[in-house]
C-alpha cells in the first residue's frame, strides 16, 4: 500500500496506549477500501470513454465500384452519420490508389472540403504484363501497425470495404485490443463471404431521400442560371431560385446539421420539407453550404458567396 501503509503505521504508533485499537484498525482498513474503490471506478470510467472513440478507414475505390449511381458524397455522408449515431469520431481517412487516369481527385478534394476527411495516397504496382495492383490493403495494415496501440486512441476501428484482404489488418488491430467492424453498402455483391459471415459486419443503408439519383431540380435551376442566365429559366426554375433567394435572406443560424438546417428553414419559410432538403443539398454541391469538420456534421452557409449574393438580388 506504500504511502498509505506508512500513514496507517504512524497512526497505530500514536495510539498504542488506547484500549480500542481494533476499532481504529477497522476504521483505517475501511478507509483504505473506499480509496481503492474510487480509484477502480476512475479507471473504469476512463476505459469506457476510450471505447466510445472510433476511427473510420475507407477503401475508396472499392466503395466507388460498388456505389454505381450513388455519389461518393452521399455515401460518405451516410457513413459519418451512422458513425455519429454510435459515438464520437476521431478521424475519417480515405485510402486512395494512385491510378492517374481513374482516381476521382476532384471528388476527393470536395470530400476533404465538405467533410474534413483525411486522404492517404497509395502506390500502384505493376503485377505482370499490363496488370496492376494497388497497395491499399497494405497501407491499411501499416496504418494499424504504426498508429494503433493498446489503451491509446480509439478502441473501435471501422473498415469500409468488402475486400477479404483487409481481414489481415483486422487481425492485427485485434492483437492491440481494438474492436473492428466492417461496413459496406447494403446488398452489395462486392462483400466477400469471409467478411459477411465471419466478421462483425454492418450494412450502410442509403436513405431514399439522400439518393435522388442525380435528379435535383434546385441544382438544375442553379446550373441553368450560371450557364445561361435568368432568361433560360422557366417558371418552375424561377420559383426554385426565389426559394433559394428567400433561404439566403432568412436569419437561419449556422452550426445545424443538414437535417436540422432543412427543418429549421422549412418551418421559418413555410417550404415543404422535401423541397428544403433538396435546396440544401444543391447549395452543398455548389459549395455554398459546407459540412466541416466530419466530427460534428455542422453546416456552415457561406453568405459571402458571389452566387448566393447574385441570387438574393433576383426579384
Can you characterise this structure?
It is built from 13 helices and ten strands. The protein is α/β, with parallel strands linked by helices. It folds into three domains: 3-49; 53-210, 5'-nuclease (Rossmann fold); 217-312, Arc Repressor Mutant, subunit A. Helix 8 (193-198) links the parallel strand 7 (179-185) and strand 8. Helix 4 packs parallel to helix 5, helix 9 (217-228) packs across helix 10 and helix 9 (217-228) crosses helix 12 (273-285). It starts with a helix and ends with a helix. Residues 1-19, 42-51 and 209-213 have low confidence and may be disordered.
Helices and strands in order:
Blueprint lengths: L2 H12 L6 H31 L2 E6 H8 L4 H15 L2 E9 L7 H11 L2 E5 L1 E3 L5 E3 L1 H12 L8 E5 L6 H9 L3 E7 L7 H6 L2 E4 L12 H12 L6 H15 L8 H12 L3 H13 L3 E3 L7 E3 L4 H7 L3
Parallel strand pairs: 1-2, 1-6, 2-3, 6-7, 7-8
Antiparallel strand pairs: 4-5, 9-10
Amino acid at each position: 500500500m506504500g504511502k498509505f501503509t506508512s500513514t496507517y503505521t504512524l497512526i497505530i504508533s500514536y495510539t498504542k496506549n488506547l484500549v480500542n485499537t481494533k476499532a481504529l484498525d477497522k476504521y483505517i482498513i475501511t478507509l483504505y477500501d473506499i480509496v481503492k474503490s474510487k480509484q477502480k471506478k476512475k479507471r473504469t470510467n476512463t476505459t469506457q470513454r476510450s471505447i466510445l472513440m472510433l476511427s473510420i478507414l475507407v477503401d475508396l475505390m472499392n466503395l466507388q465500384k460498388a456505389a454505381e449511381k450513388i455519389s461518393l458524397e452521399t455515401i460518405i455522408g451516410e457513413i459519418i452519420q451512422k458513425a455519429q449515431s454510435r459515438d464520437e469520431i476521431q478521424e475519417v481517412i480515405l485510402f486512395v490508389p494512385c491510378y492517374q487516369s481513374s482516381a476521382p481527385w476532384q471528388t476527393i478534394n470536395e470530400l476533404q472540403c465538405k467533410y474534413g476527411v483525411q486522404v492517404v495516397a497509395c502506390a500502384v504496382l505493376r503485377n505482370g504484363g499490363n496488370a496492376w495492383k494497388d497497395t491499399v490493403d497494405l497501407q491499411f495494415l501499416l496504418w494499424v501497425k504504426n498508429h494503433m496501440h493498446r489503451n491509446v486512441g480509439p478502441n473501435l476501428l471501422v473498415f469500409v470495404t468488402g475486400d477479404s484482404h483487409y481481414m489481415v489488418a483486422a487481425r492485427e488491430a485485434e492483437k492491440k485490443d481494438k474492436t473492428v467492424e466492417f461496413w459496406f453498402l447494403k446488398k452489395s455483391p462486392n462483400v466477400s463471404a469471409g467478411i459477411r459471415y465471419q466478421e462483425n459486419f454492418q450494412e450502410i443503408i442509403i436513405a431514399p431521400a439522400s439518393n435522388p439519383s442525380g435528379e435535383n431540380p434546385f441544382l438544375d435551376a442553379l446550373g441553368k442560371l450560371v450557364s445561361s442566365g435568368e432568361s433560360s429559366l422557366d417558371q418552375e426554375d424561377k420559383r426554385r431560385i426565389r426559394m433559394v433567394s428567400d433561404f439566403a435572406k432568412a436569419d437561419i443560424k449556422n452550426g445545424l446539421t443538414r437535417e436540422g438546417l432543412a427543418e429549421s428553414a422549412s418551418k421559418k419559410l413555410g417550404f415543404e420539407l422535401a423541397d428544403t432538403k433538396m435546396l440544401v443539398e444543391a447549395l452543398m454541391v455548389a459549395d455554398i453550404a459546407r459540412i466541416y469538420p466530419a466530427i460534428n456534421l455542422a453546416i456552415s452557409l457561406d453568405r459571402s458567396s458571389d452566387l448566393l449574393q447574385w441570387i438574393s438580388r433576383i426579384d
